[in-house]
Amino acid sequence: MTFRSLSPRLAVMALCFGLAAAPVVASAQAFVEFPGRSLYERFGVDAVDLFDLRGQLSRSTVIDVRPRLEYDILHIEGAHHVPLGAPDFEDQVRALEEQHGGPLVFYCNGRESYMSYRAAARANAAGLGPTQAYDAGVADWADRYPGLAILRGEPIEDPETQLITDEAFEARLLEADTFARRVRNDDNAVVLDVRGNEERDEISLFAGREMSAPLENIDTLNRILGQANRDGDALLIFDQNGQQVRWLQYHLEERGIENYHFLEGGLQQFYDEVMAR
């Protein structure tokens, strides 16, 4: 049945219902793709999407709030680096605003990572801004605008050959039960927690076997990686939501480390699966 086959009154009612439902559908889709957006909007954090950021890139002060290792591997062209965990975070952002102006646009890995929202909220609380959170993440940016993404200090020219493929990344993922079984059965495996201090809790999922090596502490990380590689021990690595390990893979490959796997979806997915049982 089409609108033409309806009576005028019913056609108008159907059209109005469709228009009213559209925002609901769009809102639900945004919640699925960006689960933190509606939460932080209540605290005055405005989100900017991929295409809008491209349009305003030249007149924005873009700030990457991830650990240095992630920024050095891949970042948006022209982005400044101020890690969210820096003790003088607000002072560094204020200095950038004074030098370059606004708006201040913060980004991280996006989606399930809320660091960009938290950075914008902290800047707002410090009286800085206007601020925005680009919440689609750096990976989406590199996929859409590879020429405006900096990989190891150079613009991406050929994404197919320069970026680690989804298949190569997914081949290193272990689902929760397999990861836990590997931890139990391999006494020599090095279980590595690369979450930042602000993400870490007091719960030990793997009987205290995990070693802490936040990506912010590159010296500790490299020391553990080097020892495991020399000893021929497997590396079983997890982060908070499965996004940081994507960039850690570049670091592992560059160091010639081959025996490693990641916890699929990070601890967040692990928790969700356990709670769903």
TrEMBL record:
Report the leader peptide range: 1-28
- Rhodanese domain location is 56-150, 185-276
**What keywords is this UniProt entry annotated with?**
Signal
User: By its UniProt entry, which SMART domains does this protein fall under?
Assistant: RHOD
CDD domains membership: RHOD
Instruction: Say yes or no: keyword Cell cycle present.
Output: no
Q: Which organism was this protein described from?
A: Thioalkalivibrio versutus
Q: What's the domain of life for this entry?
A: Bacteria
Q: Cross-referenced PANTHER family, in alphabetical order?
A: FAD-DEPENDENT OXIDOREDUCTASE, NITRIC OXIDE REDUCTASE FLRD-NAD(+) REDUCTASE
Record keyword Signal present: yes
Protein name according to UniProt: Rhodanese
Q: Which InterPro entries match?
A: GlpE_sulfurtransferase, Rhodanese-like_dom, Rhodanese-like_dom_sf
